[in-house]
Design a protein that fits this description.
InterPro entries: MUG/TDG, Uracil-DNA_glycosylase-like, Uracil-DNA_glycosylase-like_sf
CATH topology: Uracil-DNA Glycosylase, subunit E
EC number: 3.2.2.28
Strand order of the largest sheet: 2-1-3-5-4
Largest sheet: 5 strands, mixed
Number of helices: 6
Strand content: 5-15%
Number of strands: 5
CATH architecture: 3-Layer(aba) Sandwich
Order of helices and strands: EHHEHEHEEHH
Shape: globular
Protein name: G/U mismatch-specific DNA glycosylase
Enzyme class: hydrolase
Structural class: alpha/beta
CATH superfamily: Uracil-DNA glycosylase-like domain
Keywords: DNA damage, DNA repair, Glycosidase, Hydrolase
CATH class: Alpha Beta
């Protein structure tokens, strides 16, 4: 299985960070490609995209000011297959990417992703009080995996805070 390409550039409004690519994403070369993953639906229903994109259009998010990466690049069936060493190496690489590209908001797609990145245990949903890298906003959202038990309306509600944050961060500049 091969890793998938990041979609990232300087000065993004949001950089979405997932755990790692699924097997389906590795096969197709596109982020959030598993048909059970609700990422694309969540982006649309939360007001982040003007329509529901398909995973094959993931590179078009750059045109909207959004990027995509993962904390670990190795594809797996499930996140619990990721080793501590992979998380630590991925954490260092993610810090490097954020420092270079300077996105306004880093949206962690899953509380576990942020736990591995921040080394914090107790994490609320949404904007974090203090970011790991100054000059960025750390935002924690539920995983978009179909395995997540949270109700879809509650997930969308959390992601709906992002367009408001983008507007605020643009006014603060």
């Amino acid at each position: 299985m091969k890793p998938i390409r990041d979609h990232i550039k300087e000065d993004l409004n949001i950089l979405f960070v997932g755990f790692n690519p699924s097997i389906r994403s590795s096969e197709t070369g596109h982020h959030f490609a598993n048909p059970n993953n609700r990422f694309w639906k969540i982006l649309y229903e939360s007001g982040l995209t003007p329509r529901k994109f398909d995973s094959t259009e993931d590179n078009q998010l750059l045109d909207l000011g959004y990027g995509l990466t993962n904390i670990v690049s190795r594809p797996t069936k499930a996140a619990d297959e990721i080793t501590k060493e992979e998380y630590e190496a991925g954490r260092k690489e993610l810090i490097r990417k954020i420092s270079i590209y300077k996105p306004k908001i880093i949206c962690f797609v899953g509380k576990g992703v942020y736990q591995e990145y921040s080394k914090k245990k107790s994490i609320p949903w949404g904007k974090q009080e203090k970011s790991i890298i100054s000059g960025t906003i750390d935002f924690v959202a539920p995983s978009s995996s179909g395995l997540v038990r949270m109700q879809m309306k509650d997930i969308i509600q959390i992601y709906s805070e992002l367009p408001v944050l983008i507007t605020k961060s643009c006014h603060d500049i």
